[in-house]
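In line with agreed milestones, the collection of sequences with tokenised folds has grown. One record among many is set out beneath this paragraph:
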Amino acid sequence: MTSTPPATPKRQRNNAASDNVAQNVLCGIEEKSREIRFHGHNVKRLATKLQARARRALQDPRIDDDDLKDSWEALLLLIEQDCGRFERQSPQSASLGASAPP
């Protein structure tokens, strides 16, 4: 009968790399803070939660970097999608007074 190996973490992490991911997320949130404030309560809440997770990741190496990075990328897409929607609406609303689009 074959014995099973002991449980191992899904991946060994380099602490320097994990700090880098968490630090990048914190810096990115700081850079996008103006755009985050522009959005509604839900985006602000998501950014606050992500910021707290990134701070914890600096202290706790067990926090998954990939999940942290994916959450940051999802938040960025949400911010950029909303900004793009508002930018597209602005010229249209200005042109509506002049002529209706076909």
Notes: Residues 92-100 have pLDDT under 50 and may be disordered.
